[in-house]
Structure formats: structure tokens, C-alpha cells
Amino acid sequence: MEYSLLLRKHNVKDYYHSTKESPYIVLMAELAGLLMFLLLCTILVFTCTPSILIELSGKPKPPMVEILGLSVSGLNNVSYKNVSSKWGVELAAKNPNIFSTLYLDHIEGMVLFKDEVLGVSSVKINKPIVLGPREHKFVSFKVWRKDWNIDGDQPSVKDWVVDNLVMEQSRNNINFSVQMGVWGQIKSGWWLRKSVIMNPRCMDLSINLVKNRGFGMLLNKKPIRCYVPMLDR
């Protein structure tokens, strides 16, 4: 009987100490969680504030443009009097901004060889392509040439360009470039909306040619980042 009373007193004492210490432990846990939250907020403020201030000041970033694919066919038919070449371009456009939305109204694409335009194509857009914050979308277009001199609204190609194009057909690969003119608008919040023009430039795109078939595709299997200057208009 005396032993059971002592045991009961000991258990009551342990319970008293445990209930006395538990608020302190809970408080320390809450403080640790609060400090971790404040630390994360501080990191986010220092990393995101510059970008946010740039956007809110009316200078959002241009879209990120990457070439996903470039193909060519019909190069084996290239000569001064006969040409039936077609280029296919596939790319991705991403809006890097946190608050701003991009509206792409009109896109014109060009394929170049040695900085000379081989062909131009207008991308059909029934309604503006909308890129919300951090959103990306895919765009593609084709360029088709039937004549180097007179070919509808296509630019005339200089003789020395045709010479080099014919000469390089025998090689395993040939370099082209892709450039675009993009007209659109940027909207930041409810207070800022402005018209812009962008000129993405994707240089030195190496095409692996199938010998004597005039067909080739982009050598690099990874997306290739393009340089995208942007101006107000």
C-alpha cells in the first residue's frame, strides 16, 4: 500500500514536470518555424524585388525564344534556274515576367544563309497569341522558294549566295540562321499597356544534310536559345 502511494506520487510529479515543460517546447518550435518563414520571405524579397521593380517601372523582360527544330528539303534541286526548297521552323516562346502578360499580334519569319535572306514567311494569327506570366507556347512556320529572282513577295537572292549554296551542298552540314519580326503588346497590371516590336535572332543553326537528297535537320537536339532585342513602338 505504501509502495503504491509512493509510485502514484512519483507519477504525479513526472506529469507536473512534463506539463510544465511542454509550453516552453511548443514556444521554441513556434519561434523556429517563424524564423524559417521570415528567412524564406527575406530570400524571396531579395531575389524577386529587382525583377518586380523592373516590371512595375514599365520595363518588363522580352520573351525567351528557343529553336526546337529546323529542317530543309529540296536543296538537291538548287540551281540558278531551278529551285524548290522548303524550310520548316519550330520554336518555343516563354514569358519570363512575373506580372506582365505578352500579346503577340503579328509574326514574320526569315531564313538566312551567310546573313542574306533566302525567304520570308508570315505566321497566320487569327487572334493574338497570349503569353501569361511564366507561360510558354509553341510557334511554327515554313518558308518555300520556287525561284531565286521572281517569286511573289519573296526577296531576290544574289548570285553569289546561290553560288555558295550550290557549292556547300556537297558537305555534310550547312549553317542557316533564323530571324523574326514580332509585333505585340505588353500589359503590366491595370496601369501599363504598351506596344513593342521584337527581333529574335537565332544564329549559326547547323543542318545535317542527307547526301544527294537535299534533306536535312538540325544537328543540335537540345533547344537553342535566341537573342531577343525588344523596342517600344
TrEMBL record:
Q: Which domain of life is it from?
A: Eukaryota
Transmembrane ranges, per UniProt, are 24-54
Which keywords appear in this protein's UniProt record, sorted alphabetically?
Membrane, Transmembrane, Transmembrane helix
Key word Membrane present: yes
Protein name per UniProt: Late embryogenesis abundant protein LEA-2 subgroup domain-containing protein
Q: Which organism is it from?
A: Arachis hypogaea (Peanut)
